[in-house]
Amino acid sequence: MKTKFNIFSVAVVLAILAIVLLVGFPAPETGPGSELDFKEIPRFESYGAMLEAFKEAQAQGRSYGVMEALSGGMPMAATSMKNTEDAGSSDGSSDFSTTNVQVEGVDEADIVKTDGKYIYNFSKGKLVITDAYPIQGSRIVSSTELNGAYPLEMFVSEDKLLIFGNIQWVYAEENGGNGEPMPSSMIARDGYYPYYGGTTVAQLYDISDRSTPKLEKTLEFQGEYSTSRLIGKNAYFVVVNHRYYMENNEDDIIPMMADDGVVDKIAEATDIGFISPMPAEGFVTLASINLDSQEVQKETIVGSVRNVFASKNHIYLAGTVWTFPDIPIVEDAVRPIVGDFETTVVNKFGLRDGEVGFVGQGSVPGHVLNQFSMDEFEGKFRVATTSGQLSRMGNGTSNNIYVLDEEMTTIGKLENLAPGESIYSARFMGKKAYLVTFKKVDPLFVIDMSVPTNPTVLGKLKIPGYSDYLHPIDETHLIGLGKDTIEAAKGNFAWYQGIKMAIFDVSDVSNPIEMHKIILGDRGTDSYALRDHKAFLYNKEKELLVLPITLSEIPEELKKAAQDKQFRPSYGEPVFQGAMVFKVTLGAGFQERGRITHVTPEDELKRGSYYGGDYSVKRSLYIGNVLYTLSENMLKANALDSLEELKEFTFE
Question: What are the CA-CA distances from residue 74 to residues 101, 424, 428, 429 (Å)?
Fold first, then answer.
């Protein structure tokens, strides 16, 4: 059949075409910091050239960067409450807590997850799934062995579950090992498994049937798992391989990987990037896997990573290097440790639907504490550093904030804050930054970041103690979690005591005040939340704060002598381990509502009840009106309003 055109139709088509040619097609949406022009990374010309770079790095020994347990920055942290418009899994509650993350929309892997109906956690190396909602019919629905991998963290997205874990190398029998078979797909070289670390394993499961999780894909990388982020359906993760050159392994230096058992080099030498000035002291792989398509993409460079920060658009890899003045090097001289020579190098990578591409590199003096010392806002990268090394008697430190533009060029700086102290916590919140430094007292700095080229101190507050973690309540109030302290009689330092929580009012930026505080226990009191923000459960609307606490106390009759600052303060004896539940309001501060423990008095000693034991509570979460607490051996459910115990699940 022929198609007929009339003059009017042709005229309409021509008119539309003219408009398109004049105006252009709609441009893709962009925003501050969303530029994604990838740049080519300098790469090695040959395997020999890469080997020479490792030899040089080892000879100079100039790098100080060592991979640490990690870890973006939206103006405010994501709340711990799921948006009620975003319902959980089928038949689940729409009111449930999520992982406490730094950047809204950028999920962080953790040891426990919930989707509003099911709770997913690890116990004794297994994946445990509990049908938790409603509580009346709750039960454990599956406990799954993980094919020899020891699980570390996980993501859950609808019917997909991604686990990151590790496998340690086992030496072959002829090399002094026990000859046990490796569960890994990696191939032993020259009769033994390489000395330089274990294997990072990523296992993707289909959990559409929660009673029978189905393993769909396995990735293995020689090296250590660093951190990961989930953005949409793409999980990005970092693997670090500390590979030092040795004469007897110069033909065997590139790490291996396996994709569903198919083993190959992680990359050819000519595909591996080398971004000066980071020395060639190891391999860093930034990879992604799409949870639906299972597509894997990666980029490998040589160097090291100390901290990782991720926004929706970028991942920043921060490593520390040492530079030296142009003076003759004396043979066998001891390398000086001088703050002025310490530099943090930050490599910026763009993220685009699973693709990873190099964007730029910047550097700033000093070292970075953790992920919360870094931030991205309106396209600018902001970072807080400490220069020098803190000591009890010396004053060789200073603290700084730097602002870098989209090209990673420093455009603003605020230096020499609190000389002789060190950064203990930082939080960037939109156009403000909050910094806690410490040596004897806790100065909280309020810093104006509204003009990127000119960060300015607006006010500060000096109080005893310090904060390891700062959590926003709203735009003008913060919770500080750290330790109480007393000054030492001799020496320029202070002794830490029990856990201190405080609410800071920063509405008057020139005069921040401590509205409320509470001290928990004596010296020796500890919490996982002091070092891992994912153990901090807070919801403003529910006025709820839950912390895992190991509480230590000194008997009253001994407390006066023990606290005498002329002597080293005594440690208290552990009296409780579990979750402490607080009501938190701006009017009344912290009000303890109750305590939940997984330890019964008769089993207190044999169970290993305190910090690190199998019944040590590490996380808490809520679904609807039920509060759940998690240890290695147990999941316990309590009523959120009364804290009455409802049910407990013991893992086999």
Answer: 10, 21, 8, 7
Whole-angstrom Cα distance, residue 309 to residue 291?
22
Interatomic CA distance for residues 171 and 426, integer angstroms: 43
Which one-letter DSSP state was computed for residue 530?
Answer: G
Q: What is the dihedral of CA 425, 429, 432, 438, to 10 degrees?
A: -10
Half-sphere CA count of 625, side-chain side, radius 13 A: 6
* In the predicted structure, residue 295 carries a pLDDT above the cut 90: yes
88: pLDDT strictly greater than 80: no
Report the distance separating Cα 498 and Cα 571, nearest Å.
10
User: How many whole angstroms separate alpha carbon 347 and alpha carbon 622?
Assistant: 38
CA atoms within 13 A on the CB side of 267: 20
Question: In a 3-state reduction of DSSP, which class is residue 174?
Answer: helix
- The Cα 80–Cα 98 span in angstroms is 5
CA distance 501 to 520: 8
Q: Show the tokens assigned to 623.
A: 């679904």
User: Is the confidence at residue 328, as pLDDT, over 90?
Assistant: no
Nearest CA to 626 out of 585, 577, 581 is that of 581
3 state DSSP class of 488: coil
pLDDT for 395: 58
Kindly report the backbone phi and psi dihedral angles of residue 233, in degrees, each rounded to the nearest multiple of 5, phi listed first. Answer: -100, 5
Helices (H), 359-402: none
Phi, then psi, of 389 in degrees rounded to 5: -115, 130
CB-based burial label for 290 (10 Å; 0-12, 13-18, 19+): middle
Query: In 3D, which of 251, 302, 246, 243 has the Cα closest to residue 277?
Result: 302
What are the phi and psi torsion angles at 57 (to 5°)?
A: -60, -40
Best CA proximity match to 463, nearest among 489, 488, 426, 437: 437
